[in-house]
Specification:
With 205 residues, the chain is an alpha/beta fold. It contains five helices and eleven strands. Helix 2 links the parallel strand 2 and strand 3. It is globular and about 35 Å long.
């Protein structure tokens, strides 16, 4: 299965248009959160992405809530929003948890969860599946411009415990496009330009 993975569009319509074109060559599309800016502008990109007919799985970022994303994504008929929940596509198990984990310093507007809340929502993550999260796991693809690590301990522990074959995240802009491994799990900070990842290619990552 080939996946087109992206994150952090932040209302970027040009990036969304490019993703629509790129989706023609994949089997499934994954959006790892932050379609909006501070809860504004969800339709800016979702109305464009709605042209993608391939199955799509989305999680909210910290710039939109799960309820807001679910409502706005109704225009995208092939999209499923996950948040502490999962689905199966072509025999592959997917699990999604959105929002920022841990709590950010951004204030009340940010859709955030503490590590315990994150662990609770991650508890259903299947072994060997695909995990989609907005926040990266701690000390992987989560370094800001100062070099400080900003990721989540609960996401890291879930990966170590369940060993999903792939983790797709975003959130930390300075590590867009970067990848890491925890055990056998490949981890990608997707970014708005998108990455094509082949689940069958064990050398990818």
């Amino acid at each position: 299965m080939k996946l087109l993975c992206f994150s952090d569009l932040h209302r970027d319509q040009q990036a969304a248009t490019s993703l629509v074109q790129a989706a023609a060559d994949v089997d499934c599309v994954i959006g790892a959160g932050d379609f909006a800016n501070r809860h504004e502008g969800l339709p800016d990109t979702l109305n464009i992405l709605a042209a993608i007919e391939k199955p799509a799985i989305l999680v909210p970022g910290n710039g939109e809530s799960a309820a807001e994303l679910t409502e706005a994504a109704q225009v995208w008929k092939s999209a499923t929003v996950l948040h502490g929940s999962g689905c199966v596509i072509d025999g592959i198990q997917f699990w999604g948890v959105g929002g920022a984990i841990p709590v950010t310093p951004f204030g009340a507007w940010s859709y955030d969860f503490d590590e315990q809340q994150g662990a609770d929502m991650l508890s259903g993550c299947p072994a060997g599946g695909v995990l989609i999260v907005h926040s990266p796991p701690l000390d992987t693809v989560d370094k800001d411009r100062s070099g400080r690590i900003r990721g989540s301990e609960s996401i890291r522990q879930t990966i170590l415990d369940r060993q999903p074959q792939l983790v797709v995240c975003g959130h930390i802009h300075d590590d867009w496009g970067k990848q890491a491994k925890l055990g056998k799990t490949r981890i990608f900070n997707a970014g708005p330009q998108g990455l094509v990842i082949d689940l069958n290619d064990q050398n990818n990552g």
